[in-house]
Amino acid sequence: MPYVDRQNRICGFLDIEENENSGKFLRRYFILDTQQGSLVWFMDNPQNLPIGTDCVGSLKLTYISKVSDATKQRPKAEFCFVINAGMRKFFLQANDQQDLVDWVIALNKATKITVPKSSESHQNSENQKVLPDVVGPKKQVSYRTDIIGGVPIITQTQHEGGDGANRSEREALQRSHGQLPYFLGRPAQEQSVIKSGYCVKQGAVMRNWKRRYFLLEENAMSYFKSDLEKEPLRMIPLKEVHKVQECKQSDIMMRDNLFEVVTTSRTFYIQADSPVEMHSWIKAISGAIVAQRGPGRSAATMRQARRLSNPCIQRYTSRIGECSGTD
Question: Which residues cross the membrane (predicted)?
Fold first, then answer.
């Protein structure tokens, strides 16, 4: 899900169809910066890229006229939404339904600027009064003027209920995918896998940051170059882990969503893609350690550890053996 970084910008990963009508979606890191009035996307979190790396694409918020669910336009693309900007439509895929809802609402909110009336407050209030209906009972009607994509738009709003329009938009988006069998297409998971996914890790020697695929099992946490690899770069036995916590080290605290895994021989610094993912990893690893060190590793204790983690576990390629390295 999108999150607010230390510079008060909305950030997160999405898949975007960069070449229009190509049907090919690429993973990108998006930053919605309302202060700069732009939506930009990079190959990865800029914190993990060389200083001065340019963005892959950008879009001025004033060019955006509408952001909406694109289920009907792209029925084969799961959790897809569209940004209408002039003559171009940008199709993007969210991670899940809630991620889609949050991004659509955040983008629509960022592109709407309420325009106050230039007249006195008395005249302002006239727009909020009940307008007469020639036939039938009177209706409570009010209007709001927005600038959307540089064009003034007058829309009817609800007189009562305050954020009724916002709430109805959120509910409609949630209903659109409410019955999707999201997990039906997922392959069966190995029972030993508690959590898996991509994070960014600091190297032991060069101290550079690289994206790695992490796999948490009952007895160890391993990381790979990618989810296609079968042999890990390193396996960290849970029995060697002393603590797992959000990172407080001053010289790298500017990194968002950073946590540390402290072992007997080394402290691993790992950056998740969002605050939710960071806390999910911390809870999952901590839960696995508790389950391992508790009185017997029963099925119930392992189920409890899995519940602490994100249920959307990625596909586990194969059972791997222990290996070591300096990565």
Answer: none
